[in-house]
Amino acid sequence: MIILESNSKHFDINLEKLLSKRKAKIRLSFASVSKIVSEVKKQGDKAVLRYEKKFNNNINIVPKSKKIDQSIRLLDKKIKKAVDLAYNRIYKFHSLQKFKNIYYTDKLKNKLEYRYIPIESVAIYVPGSTASYPSSVLMNAIPALVAGVKRIVMINPGKKGKQNSAVLYAAKKCQIKEIYSIGGPSAIAAVAYGTKKIKKVDKIVGPGNSYVAAAKKEVFGDVGIEGMIAGPSEITIVCDKYSNPEWVASDIIGQAEHDNLSQCILISKNKDLIFKVKDEINKQLKDLPRAKIARNSIKNNAILIHISSDNKIIDVVNKIAPEHLELNVKNYKKIALKIKNSGSICLGKYAVMAMTDYNIGSNHVLPTNSSARYSSGISVNEFYKRISYINLSKKGIETLGPSVITLANYEGLVGHAKSVEKRIRRK
């Protein structure tokens, strides 16, 4: 873990170097996926199966319905209840996000409409090679359901082709009828371009590792992706002398266990607390099943920052633009509204990021790699297209047309001008 002092001469430069170093590691994945995407595009199922055998030890792309049903039946009732609770809360919050169509008629009787149309088909990517995430099924599929997407496809690698029971139950809960046991860049390419077994979709969403993120960028343009980079995960925690070091350390570890490239940043005006948290991290890692991943993440990407003023804290957080931000401080109200760049913000000592990952109701698919500067997390809006409808009256074109003709001629688009002129002359 690296400790930075905000009062040091080269603080801003050193922080930027550390942030860029991680981003560079993520970008290394981008070059390696082009070949995979190209092969799947050309060879279809043959290439998908080859990569599934290589990376997931899987020979079964399409799981049988009977096996899915059997797996769901064997799932612990306690897990089912937990999924049900999360589903209901996420659905309720996201149902409030539905947009209303806009209808407008001006004084000239011109009619303008703005309609929200659900995307026809969407693939949700659910990670599954190193862990299983029924929560990611809910976070991606529920907003699509609320928006009215007709066809929702789930791609999930599972382990050796065997998918997690809770993931399958969550998919059933979300009315997903198409499930493919595939993962990584080849899975992204398969749903982007289609194969004999897999019909292509219009948009792909969902978090994944750096290779999945790279593949989504590679296919963008041929298919839609969410307006952000989702993964690997990040958290920035701002704490003070009143914060509980044990709690803060557990929050950092909870994020670090996701991925070797996860990034955890701790910021505080209290230097003693920083060292206490550092000690707690080392202590708590001993009892963690995914300790190896968490250790790698913390060793390579964790940053501890001592900052002396609230204004500087705000500036640094906005520069980092973290996926998750925890304001574990007494004066969070003073700071919160000045944070402009973050995927989500947890306020106060009880608002732990892990809660937002499951059943609070907000979405956990959020922008990473500083993309919170210009984008937001998954919402219902992600699954709409917006279409404008324009109905001009005779009076409208005759009144507004001359101005359009003037501008079109000025821009050198004479054809535009003439198409308006012809309608005005025809009385």
Q: Give the distance, in angstroms, between the N- and C-terminal Cα atoms.
A: 77 Å
Mean pLDDT: 92
Summarize the helix and strand pattern as letters: EHHHHEEEHEHEHEHEEHEHHEHEHEHEHH
Structural class: alpha/beta
Radius of gyration: 25 Å
Low-confidence stretches: none
CATH topology group of the largest domain: Rossmann fold
Helical fraction equals: 40-55%
What is the number of helical segments per DSSP (H or I, 4+ residues)?
16
- For the record, what CATH class of the largest domain applies? Alpha Beta
Oligomerization category of the chains in this entry: single chain
Strand segment tally: 14
Q: How is the largest sheet built, in terms of strand order?
A: 1-11-10-9-12-13
> How many strands, which pairing sense, and closed or not: the largest β-sheet?
6 strands, parallel
Which band does the percent of strand residues land in?
A: 15-25%
CATH superfamily of the largest domain: Nitrogenase molybdenum iron protein domain
Number of domains: 3
CATH architecture assignment of the largest domain: 3-Layer(aba) Sandwich
The shape is globular
